[in-house]
Each structure stands twice: as structure tokens, then as C-alpha cells.
Specification:
globular; 290 residues; single chain; mainly alpha
Length: 290
């Protein structure tokens, strides 16, 4: 057990708020966060070391994993408890919407985000700018956009994502269908100049991930995972000729039989392009159909 986890256990023992079940869930949830922070490259020596950047990194990770708003709200509750007990309540925003998370009782929310070019140009690192463009153009997860190797991935009409770059080690292909996508790939190939990935040679993945978080937040770009949602919605319209429910299109119950068939076919295609094994997950990106 590392130092942070031990300190969190001690914090929970000293502060037995709530029922036994609540205390148990809180302790497990905080221990999981300690492990996640370590995976993200943050070595916190104790509970008092919590900073806003740690909360931002955790929420971005949960969004990248397509956790529901309810799940993220619960985890933020544990995080706020931690911050309060160490006298750092201001470290965690009180409004969940600040993190791109809906409040309790709100309908399922559209997480799609359009790239703000002013904020994009404020990103100082060209490698990080290129990774953001890959997220926008191909709906890549943040890790995939950082580990992306243009020379190994680009084919005539698609890109191939190797299992070592992707969540769960699931390799997949994503079609190249627009001029914008080709321009993004050409830019990435030119930038790396024959090197491997979008990570500079002298940096590790964790080091570049932390730089990505720093530079995007400094530029005011929160929740770059929202670009993945926007990609899914653009693909839905390209495949069906209609907008998805989240973008103002018809609800499933209002569609004709032919429209429902087209909707289901598009969702299967989009699910495959995003690297998801469950069709139900497309509700999060497109709006409910199930």
C-alpha cells in the first residue's frame, strides 16, 4: 500500500461520517482514486497534497472511460469529502457542471464539444495541438491521440489503431472520409519527421499526458473527450442523413421503421469506430435509442 492510500485509510478512520455502508464505499472509492492518480503519473505523498489539477485529471479519466454522470457525481462527493477533511475544500469545484457533469435529476446530457480555435491556438506545444486535432478528426481517446503513430496507422482509406494504443487492447480501424481528416494526418506525419508517435522522443507517455493536461487546461480547453462525442454525432449524420437525438434529431419512438433500421445500423458502425463492444454505449454519444 503506497503512502497516499495509507494516509487516506487513516483519514477515513479518523472521520467516520455516515452509515457503515457509506464509510465502506467511501474508503474503497478513495483507495481507487489513489491508484488512478498513480497510474496518471501523480505521486502524492499524503492527503494534504491534493490540488485542483488532480481533480481535473481524475474527472477527465472518468469521462474518457464513459462513466455516467451519476457515477462521476458519486466519485466527486468522495473527492469533496477528502478535500474538506484536509482543510482544502476550495480545491474541488462545488458545481459539477464545471467538470462537464450534469446535476442529479437532469436529463441525459449532450457532451459533444466543438473545438474553439482561439483556445486551440493558445496551446504552446505543437505535438499536443496535433493530438487534439486527431481527437477531433477521428474521435480518438486522449491516450490514443498521444500514442498514435502516423506512419504505422495511415492506410489509403482508413487508419489502424494498434491494441497497445487503445483501451482494453482492442485494435480497430477508423475510416478516412473527409479532406479535413487527410490534412490532419498529413500534418501529423510532417510534424514527427519519421519518428514514432505524437510523444517527443525524450518524454514518456505519462510525462506527455501530464503536459497535455497542463497545456490544454492553461488554454481553457476542458474535457477534450467532448470531441469524441462530436465525432460520433457527425458520423451519425453522415451515415443516416439525419441528426441524432442529441443534436435535435428524432427520438427513437418517433422514427419510422426504415429510420429505426438506419439508426441501428449507424450505431453499430459508430460503436465499432469508437472501439466499444456494447451498442448501448452509443446512447451516451447520440441520445437514447434503447
Amino acid at each position: 500500500m503506497d503512502d497516499l492510500t495509507m494516509d487516506l485509510v487513516r483519514l477515513c478512520r479518523r472521520n467516520r461520517d455516515g452509515s457503515y455502508g457509506t464509510q465502506t464505499n467511501r474508503k474503497r472509492g478513495l483507495a481507487a482514486m489513489a491508484a488512478e492518480l498513480t497510474d496518471l503519473g501523480y505521486q502524492l505523498p499524503n492527503t494534504g497534497s491534493l490540488k485542483p489539477k488532480h481533480a481535473e485529471a481524475l474527472v477527465e479519466k472518468w469521462l474518457n472511460e464513459d462513466k455516467t454522470d451519476a457515477t462521476i457525481r458519486n466519485r466527486l462527493t468522495f473527492l469533496r469529502w477528502w478535500a474538506e477533511k484536509v482543510g482544502k475544500s476550495n480545491v474541488i469545484h462545488r458545481d459539477n457542471r464545471t467538470y462537464g457533469v450534469g446535476e442529479r435529476g437532469e436529463a441525459m446530457r449532450n457532451r459533444a464539444q466543438t473545438l474553439d480555435m482561439g483556445k486551440f491556438r493558445a496551446i504552446e506545444c505543437p505535438y499536443i495541438r496535433a493530438s487534439v486535432l486527431l481527437q477531433v478528426a477521428f474521435g480518438l481517446r486522449r491516450e490514443e491521440a498521444l500514442k498514435f503513430q502516423p506512419l504505422a496507422a495511415v492506410r489509403a482509406d482508413h487508419i489502424t489503431l494498434q491494441g497497445s494504443w487503445t483501451k482494453g487492447g482492442r485494435a480497430r480501424t477508423v475510416p478516412i472520409t473527409t479532406l479535413e481528416q487527410r490534412q490532419v494526418l498529413e500534418h501529423a506525419i510532417t510534424l514527427i519527421k519519421g519518428k514514432n508517435s505524437m510523444i517527443p522522443d525524450h518524454l514518456s507517455y505519462i510525462e506527455q499526458l501530464k503536459r497535455f493536461e497542463y497545456h490544454t487546461l492553461k488554454a481553457g480547453l476542458r474535457n477534450t473527450h467532448g470531441f469524441r462525442h462530436a465525432y460520433a454525432q457527425h458520423r451519425y449524420e453522415a451515415l443516416t442523413g439525419a441528426k441524432c437525438p442529441f443534436a435535435g434529431g428524432k427520438r427513437w419512438i418517433d422514427m419510422t421503421a426504415a429510420e429505426q433500421q438506419a439508426d441501428r445500423s449507424a450505431r453499430r458502425q459508430i460503436s465499432a469506430e469508437l472501439g466499444h463492444g456494447r451498442l448501448k454505449i452509443t446512447d451516451t454519444y447520440l441520445g437514447s435509442a434503447f
